[in-house]
Amino acid sequence: VIRDYVPDPKASWRSGKPDYLIVNRTFFEYRSLEHEVGSLEAIVSKLIKNWAVEAHHIADVQHWKTMDISKFQGAINGGCPFMAQHMSDFGACNLFLGESRDYNYRVHSFESSQKVFRTAFPMGFAWECLE
Fold first, then answer.
1. Which pTM was predicted?
2. Which of 53, 56, 45 is nearest to 6 (CA)?
3. What one-character-per-residue DSSP string does the chain give?
4. DSSP bridge partners of 58
5. Per-residue confidence (pLDDT) for residue 96, from 0 to 100
6. Is the pLDDT score of 1 beyond 80?
7. Domains in the chain: boundaries
8. Between vectors from CA 28 to CA 34 and to CA 122, what angle results, nearest 5°?
9. What is the average pLDDT value for the chain, to the nearest integer?
């Protein structure tokens, strides 16, 4: 199972329920490894993919189930810490990409960062946990 996300019944999707058919097909076609069910790699893979459903598609962090939002605090490369609501408002893509020669998070909203990401990866982002 690549992701088995079941949303909180009160959760609402940002722009409709996501369809992972294409990216799942890409993942299964090109993955490097097939992890043993129950292995740490399989658990991490499913957790990250389920988290991505929430982070990209459910705006209200009160309906997130993959993390304890009261305890969550993230930071990228030693940068300023952020909470779950900031990540939801600002966008995980903006937080992870930051500022570089080819991308400037300061000019992107959540929505525009998603458009950039989907343009760059039209088949979806078939992320794989290797070990």
1. 0.85
2. 53
3. --------TT--BSSS----HHHHHHHHHH-S--PPTTSHHHHHHHHHHHHHHHHHHB--GGG--SS-TTT--B-STT---B-HHHHHHH-HHHHHH-B-SS-BGGG--HHHHHHHHHHH-TT--------
4. 13
5. 87
6. no
7. 21-120
8. 140
9. 92
Tokens 């294409």 label which residue? 22
Distances (CA, A) of 116 to 12, 39, 107, 111, 122: 23, 34, 12, 9, 10
* Unique residue bearing structure tokens 């960062």: 113
Which tokens sit at 85? 């609501």
Band of pLDDT at residue 3, cut at 50, 70 and 90? confident
pLDDT in tens, 25-74: 999 999 999 999 999 999 999 999 999 999 999 999 999 999 999 999 99
